Amino acid sequence: RDAVISISNDLGRPKAISFWQAWRLPGVFAYSLAYACLKLVNYSFFFWLPFYLHAHYGWKESIADELSAWYDIGGIVAAVIAGIASDHFSSRTPVLVCMLIFSMGSLFAYANSPDNVLINSFLMALTGFFIGGPANLISSAVSADLGKAEQIRGSSEALSTVTGIIDGTGSVGAGIGQLFIPEIEAVFGWTAVFYGFIVMMLCTILCLTPLLWKEIANRRNPRYVHLHSEDSNDSLGSYFDSAADSAMDTSQLPVRARHRN
Fold it and tell me: Which CATH superfamily is domain 18-220 in?
């Protein structure tokens, strides 16, 4: 009679967390609210920019559609630069806040842009740079960073939950914005819409301010530099140690044990 001994890969695997536990992870609530305000502005440009160019400046719809691509180009370039900068400084919140501060100035400038295709395209790309860049960074790199918290480290399910919460909250904010924009434009005009965008960017900064102060305080801690400098070496050493241990354990464990009566 043969008895098969199976080895489970789930031993030591982090348990999945609930929806409300994910909300209570450090930074999730703040980044979710910030992304709701930011995604409202970002998606408003996606949906309304061609219509705005046609209605406000009287440009042809084909030209308006082509020019609106400059907003996307600015966001794509910003996402790459912001990602590189945040990795270089090992901190994402200060990079985000700096870009968000400049976004308010770019929004004000674009709201008062003259009837000139070249100037409008430049200001549009600049606005996309300071809005689209942080939006892409929060929805990707920041979500992954939050998923590395001690409580859920190594759990892909928990990382998916955190990413879903942040992106879902942002989608709620974006959806609410699309309901109010036509009403505000009909009563107060497009200038009021852009000033409302500036207010949303300010709300985004306020949501991130507690995390910003926390990161600044951590960087002032003398232990921060020491621990951070050793982090890459420790992680590399841990990788090779775990690989060696895994190879040793696997070689010593029998895949099948036969017991005969």
Answer: MFS general substrate transporter like domains (1.20.1250.20)
> Dihedral through CA 123, CA 128, CA 131, CA 133, nearest 10?
-130
Q: Identify which of 48, 25, 32, 7 has the alpha carbon closest to the alpha carbon of residue 177.
A: 48
Spans of all domains in the chain: 18-220, 222-251
Most confident of 54-63, 225-234, 246-255: 54-63
Burial annotation 98-109 (CB, 10 A radius, 16+ → b, else e): bbbebbbebbee
**Do the beta carbons of residue 124 and residue 74 sit within 8 Å?**
yes
Q: Which amino acid is at 20?
A: W
b (16+ CB within 10 A) / e for 81-91:
ebbebbeeeeb
Q: Is the dihedral of CA 108, 111, 113, 119 positive or negative?
A: positive
pLDDT band at 153 (very low <50, low <70, confident <90, very high): low
> Which pTM does this prediction carry?
0.75
**Could you report the per-residue pLDDT of 108-148, keeping only the tens digit for each?**
999 999 999 999 999 999 999 999 999 988 887 776 677 66
